[in-house]
Amino acid sequence: MVNRIEQDRKRFEDIIRGRVKKDLQRHITRGELIGKRGRELVSIPVPSIDPPRFRHGTREQGGVGQGPGDVGQPLGGGQQPGAGGTGAGDDAAEHLREVELSIDELTTLLGEELGLPRIEPKGARAIQALRGRYTEIRRVGPESLRSFRRTYRAALKRQVSAGTYDPRRPMVVPVREDMRYRSWRDVPTPVANAVVLYMMDVSGSMSDEQKEIVRIESFWLDQWIRRHYNSMATRYVIHDAAAREVDRDTFFTTREAGGTKISSAYELAVQIVEREYPPDDWNVYLFHFSDGDNWGGGDNERCFRLLREKVLPWANLFGYGQVESRTGSGAFLGALSSHVQAENLVCSRIPDRDGILGSIRDFLGRGR
Fold it and tell me: Which of the chain's ends, N or C, has fewer CB atoms near its CB within 10 Å?
């Protein structure tokens, strides 16, 4: 009975997950969800779902096929209050219910819906840490580590071999020489660490709506990458004609004017990584979001040279996301795609909020 109840509950949860996945794009692009941290629960509205159940009527109502009436006549004895006509209640309303899911569960649904592969950290670039594992048995040790099963087995073998074991009175009494204790040894274990560095253009052509798109997309990029590493650091760089490092809140709220010099952000990113996150010990991810405007004077070529010589040789992934703007030229995406080709370089066009899921698939679909 308990197993059947558990199976029914599991089926009902699968139905809920299916309804959430059906409208996943709408849920994921809700800006308020990304204010949650860690494993906190978020409320997701889904159409009301009632588990099927039997409803028993009264004896006076008769049974199936009983009572007056002709074949094909609707049951119910006429129009019910609130049904039919043109008055209130003419159309059925869609009832919604709130279901609670954790950010981790939503991230899992995101990965399933987009078909994202697991990220494979760079094997040779993982930090080796020593961790104790209880893999050995010794005859001495603290009582807190005594292995009762092995101690019993040693005592039983001793009594059987000595002829003192009586099957009719199966009493086994360990002595000191029977005692067995668990012991550990240090085992080198890979500890994969990652740093994610976000860069964003905050020049006058980037609107608040575009920054909100970047905020939402970077949140879900963070969630997916974080679940594949033991620890993860996140850094933020903003730029117009010059670049500077900021905290997370400043990254998403700063609005500046002026021109755009993308190479300033790439230069600062290289300095941060080489100074604090040696690529031999860290898995490095860089994402740059812009509307595609950039200064003339050869800055595009400087960007391409920095990518080819400094960034792409050691980065797990470099993602460039171009957020569409009515005022931006959008020329940088085409120039980057035609001048720099590498397996760990991904370019993505994000026309609006509906393009967020597709852009996430572009960036994370290679499992790097």
Answer: N
pLDDT at 136: 81
Burial of 212 (0-12, 13-18, 19+ CB in 10 A): middle
Domain borders along the chain are 1-48+97-115, 127-189, 192-364
DSSP state letters, 246-281: E-HHHHHH----S---HHHHHHHHHHHHHHHS-TTT
Q: How far is CA 10 from CA 21, 41, 53, 157, in A?
A: 16, 19, 16, 47
- The strand ranges marked E within the chain are 41-47, 96-102, 127-138, 181-191, 193-201, 231-239, 243-246, 283-290, 317-323, 345-350
192-364 CATH pick, 3.40.50.620, 3.40.50.410, 2.60.40.10, 3.30.450.20:
3.40.50.410
> What gap in Å lies between CA 28 and CA 110, rounded to an integer?
8
Q: Locate 183 and state its tokens.
A: 């012991």
State pLDDT tens for residues 253-288: 887 677 789 999 999 999 999 999 988 889 999 999
